[in-house]
């Protein structure tokens, strides 16, 4: 066996993290660029549905919290683009691919935020789902990705708590507010379950990613963990899970849940979700509109580098 491959396999087996300068199989590098790139795009596209409510937040406190949260998501995008760059990915190329529809981002951000309760639902359910996935990624085999996840998870837990608190306030408010909260849960529950990806028997990348310890748990395992964590929270604030099949199984200690609408999931992935076009258009405008800033920053960096040499 090739000595480099043998060393890589041994590191994976022994849980020694793979670092940017280490030799790694091309397919491992490619998978990581795909996953980290998609993850970075999700963080940045994910700013759009909530950003939509910054000017309409119901109080100064909610506005300040939302502003901080949306800024955090931009920061997460930056760590993740940097992590992808350590693998040789080029940021301009990743952006071009996102805008051309050649790179994915999380399906969840193709749904609109129709009311303030939807913003609470994103914090609570979407960040809640993201944390379940990302806590597992803190032990992913590629060092820079794992380290980025540690910091991101700390911030995501604040996001989840603020979303839960905002939703709890609505659920305990007037009958109209409670209904608004329930409607938001109805809209976001199933798309949040879809965030974990296709079921294990339809997930083409899982087996190899698990073998490389990029993924530590399967899509279905993480989805189940999210359901088990979240159903009691829904019930605690007096709302209902919009799934007639939800039921606690005393024997397994897990909640059983109904069938996900996979046709909807794949349609969203193909660009047919309610906001796919709008999201990509917003990113295209921001990318093109920000060109002069990137150009100016590049010239400044060159000048600074020349000064150092001189
Ligand atoms: N949406 O074989 P698998 C956040 C794709 S962060 C779109 O199972 P894999 C923070 C998948 O890429 C949310 N595409 O793939 C926040 C693959 O595409 P391919 C993002 C999806 O990679 C909160 C194909 O389907 N988090 O929310 C989705 O082994 C609030 C086949 O799937 C991450 O990205 C989907 N839901 O497992 C921000 C976490 N699911 O091969 C703002 C890191 C699957 O055609 C506000 N990523 N696909 O290129 C992962 O853990 C994995 O990539 C999975 C998918 C689990 C998402």
Please characterize this protein's 3D structure.
The chain is mainly α. It has a single domain (3-309), classed as Up-down Bundle (Ferritin), CATH 1.20.1260. Helices cover 68% and strands 2% of the residues. It has 13 helices and two strands, in the order H-H-H-H-H-H-H-H-H-H-E-E-H-H-H. The protein has a two-stranded antiparallel sheet with strand order 1-2. The longest helix is centred in the middle third of the chain and has 29 residues, at 143-171. It is globular. 36% of the residues are buried. The mean pLDDT is 97. The chain binds Phenylacetyl coenzyme A. Residues 34-35, 38-39, 42-43, 46, 73, 104, 106-107, 122, 126-127, 130, 133, 194-198, 203-206, 209, 219, 269 line the site of Phenylacetyl coenzyme A. Pfam families: PaaA_PaaC (PF05138). One of its GO terms (biological process) is phenylacetate catabolic process. It comes from Acinetobacter stercoris. One of its GO terms (molecular function) is phenylacetyl-CoA 1,2-epoxidase activity. Its EC number is 1.14.13.149.
Number of DSSP-assigned strands = 2
The CATH homologous superfamily name equals: Ferritin, core subunit, four-helix bundle
Q: Spans with pLDDT under 50 lasting ≥5 residues?
A: none
Q: Determine the strand fraction and express it as a percent band.
A: under 5%
Number of domains: 1
User: What small molecules does this complex bind?
Assistant: Phenylacetyl coenzyme A
In CATH, the architecture is: Up-down Bundle
The secondary structure category is mainly alpha
Radius of gyration (CA) equals 21 Å
Q: Which percent range fits the helix content?
A: 55-70%
Number of helices: 13
Biggest sheet character: 2 strands, antiparallel
The strands making up the biggest β-sheet line up spatially as: 1-2
Could you state the order of secondary-structure elements as H and E? Answer: HHHHHHHHHHEEHHH
Principal-axis shape equals globular
The CATH topology turns out to be Ferritin
Mean pLDDT: 97
């Amino acid at each position: 066996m090739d000595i480099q491959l043998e060393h890589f396999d041994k590191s994976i087996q022994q849980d020694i993290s793979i670092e940017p300068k280490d030799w790694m199989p091309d397919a491992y590098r490619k998978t990581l660029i795909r996953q980290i790139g998609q993850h970075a795009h999700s963080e940045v596209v994910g700013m759009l549905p909530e950003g939509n409510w910054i000017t309409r937040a119901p109080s100064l406190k909610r506005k300040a919290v939302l502003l901080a949260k949306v800024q955090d998501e931009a920061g997460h995008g930056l760590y993740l683009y940097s992590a992808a760059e350590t693998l040789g990915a080029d940021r301009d190329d990743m952006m071009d691919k996102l805008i051309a529809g050649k790179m994915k981002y999380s399906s969840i951000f193709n749904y609109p935020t129709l009311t303030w309760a939807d913003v609470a639902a994103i914090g609570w359910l979407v960040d809640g789902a993201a944390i379940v996935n990302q806590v597992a990624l803190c032990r992913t085999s590629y060092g820079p990705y794992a380290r980025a996840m540690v910091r991101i998870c700390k911030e995501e837990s604040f996001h989840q708590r603020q979303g839960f608190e905002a939703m709890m306030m609505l659920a305990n408010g007037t009958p109209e507010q409670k209904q608004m909260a329930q409607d938001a849960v109805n809209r976001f529950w199933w798309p949040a379950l879809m965030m974990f990806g296709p079921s294990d028997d339809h997930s083409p990348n899982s087996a190899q990613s698990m073998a490389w310890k990029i993924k530590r748990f399967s899509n279905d395992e993480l989805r189940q963990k999210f359901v088990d964590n979240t159903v009691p929270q829904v019930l605690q604030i007096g709302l209902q899970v919009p799934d007639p099949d939800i039921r606690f199984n005393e024997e397994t200690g897990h909640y059983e849940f109904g069938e996900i609408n996979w046709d909807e999931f794949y349609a969203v992935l193909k660009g047919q979700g309610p906001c796919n076009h709008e999201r990509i258009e917003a990113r295209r405008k921001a990318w093109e509109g920000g060109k002069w800033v990137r150009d100016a920053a590049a010239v400044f960096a060159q000048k600074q580098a020349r000064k150092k040499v001189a």
